């Protein structure tokens, strides 16, 4: 399976690596001796133990045979397979999702793509299916659809979405899917707890070009902000920095069209896909 420059955050992958280290150490083997005994390279063993590589089924079975563990490593490998869709998420995103589910308010600015809470199933499949095996892609689709229930659950949070027009016009998939996606945005915009506006395209610079971000508000706690850069998720809790995101969001809403004007623009773009 895959390997990373940085350790995977997925608990199942980390647990597998820790167990390999524990059993190897208990057997009195260094990594080179262990690798030679199993027929692998010391570099591969090091990658597994540091949770930078995902073990294969064959490797897990070889470990069980070598250590006589009655299937311990195979069971851990199965756990990795069952949860590996989480391993492809940006580091920091899992913690963000926990906070998102608790939030009373969300303020979202989205530059490049339609935000995950607004995506249709077909749009999601295009986004998350890129470079993923079918099973992992389907789990990611199901997880995102489940996450979207936050918008319609009992005691749903108040959510403001501000989208760059480019996110609407970026045809990442077929015209019919894009038309369906924009119709879905219009429908969600009719929910009493959801507000959607659009920053129209213009040839000059505006602060939103710096990147997408989300702010979460809580009744009994301070706001937090979340952004992603180069595949890394960053959950920001330092009040001064969170405050700067709040100022930026308010500024961006000043650049956006009014809600009804935004709906008219979304409708116009949707018709262009027809």
Care to describe what's here?
The structure is a single chain. The protein has 274 residues and is α/β, with parallel strands linked by helices. The protein folds into two domains: 11-87, Orthogonal Bundle (434 Repressor (Amino-terminal Domain)), CATH 1.10.260; 93-273, Endonuclease, Chain A (2-Layer Sandwich). It contains twelve helices and six strands. A six-stranded mixed sheet has the order 3-2-1-4-5-6, with helices on both faces. It starts with 10 loop residues before the first helix and ends with a helix. Residues 20-74 form the HTH cro/C1-type domain.
Short description:
The chain is of the alpha/beta class and 274 residues long. The protein has helices at residues 11-26, 31-38, 42-49, 57-67, 72-87, 93-102, 121-128, 134-147, 165-169, 175-188, 239-255, 259-273; strands at residues 105-110, 158-164, 194-199, 213-218, 221-229, 232-236. It has a six-stranded mixed sheet, with helices on both faces.
Order of helices and strands: HHHHHHEHHEHHEEEEHH
Biggest sheet statistics: 6 strands, mixed
Structural class: alpha/beta
Strand content: 5-15%
Q: Which CATH class of the largest domain? A: Alpha Beta
Helical content stands at 40-55%
Low-confidence stretches: none
As a whole number of angstroms, the C-alpha radius of gyration is: 23 Å
Gap from first CA to last CA: 41 Å
CATH A-level architecture of the largest domain: 2-Layer Sandwich
């Amino acid at each position: 399976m895959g390997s990373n420059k940085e350790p995977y955050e997925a608990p199942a992958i980390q647990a597998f690596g820790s167990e390999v280290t524990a059993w190897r150490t208990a057997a009195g083997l260094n990594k080179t001796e262990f690798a030679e005994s199993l027929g692998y390279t010391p570099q591969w063993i090091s990658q597994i133990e540091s949770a930078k590589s995902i073990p294969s089924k064959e490797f897990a079975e070889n470990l069980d045979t070598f250590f006589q563990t009655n299937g311990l490593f195979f069971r851990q490998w199965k756990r990795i397979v069952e949860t590996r869709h989480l391993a492809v998420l940006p580091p920091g995103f899992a913690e963000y999702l926990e906070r998102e589910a608790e939030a009373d308010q969300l303020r979202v600015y989205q530059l490049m793509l339609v935000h995950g809470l607004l995506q249709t199933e077909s749009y999601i499949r295009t986004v998350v299916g890129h470079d993923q095996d079918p099973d992992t892609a389907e789990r990611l689709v199901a997880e995102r659809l489940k996450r979207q229930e936050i918008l319609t659950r009992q005691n749903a949070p108040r959510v403001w979405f501000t989208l760059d027009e480019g996110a609407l016009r970026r045809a990442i998939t077929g015209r019919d899917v894009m038309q369906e996606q924009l119709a879905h945005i219009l429908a969600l915009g009719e929910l009493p707890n959801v507000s959607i506006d659009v920053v129209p395209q213009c040839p000059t610079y505006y602060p939103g070009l710096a990147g997408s971000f989300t702010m979460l508000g809580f009744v009994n706690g301070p706001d937090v902000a979340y952004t992603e850069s180069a595949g890394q998720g960053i959950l920001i809790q330092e009040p001064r920095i969170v405050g700067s995101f709040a100022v930026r969001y308010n500024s961006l809403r000043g650049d956006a069209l009014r809600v009804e004007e935004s709906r008219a623009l979304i409708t116009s773009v949707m018709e262009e896909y027809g």
